[in-house]
Amino acid sequence: FQSNSVVQGMWLLVAVCLPLAFGLEMTPTECKEAGFNVENLKCSSCEHLNKFELETLMTDCQSCCTAEKELKHEKFPMANLEVCECNLSRFPQIQAFVRKNMETAWNGKVRVKHVRGVRPQVVLKDSSGNARQTLNVEKWDTDTLIDFLNQWIE
Predict the structure, then answer these.
(1) Which residues does the UniProt record annotate as the domain Selenoprotein F/M (predicted)?
(2) How far apart are the first and last CA of the chain?
(3) Crossing angle, helix 142-152 and helix 92-99, to 10 degrees?
């Protein structure tokens, strides 16, 4: 794919034309001169350099990047995905989750509950089974739903 070649070529040019000291913290100006946008560069992006055979830029990238803050939030011991069977075909991503029994991935902590007339929603519950939070998920795709459950279910 040609645009990948252009991007790779650009990075290689930066690596060859702007040699920088390894292991030293770089100033924002040095980062900019090296082709890194300090304001937008997240450290997780540096991990992708090896996909383009740009490992030589890893140290500089890590000197210029901003570490992402890990979001801390309450986790819940269980959740119900509530959906009306009669409306399921209107929400193909939710339908895929239900039909493929994806809730089994959480060992009984996530259950699909058919509730007449309800639009797709996730009900997060405490250890006593009391609803603590309800979220409308009708516009979520399957991957978003899975990621959410992975982050919010203990």
Answers:
(1) 79-151
(2) 42
(3) 60
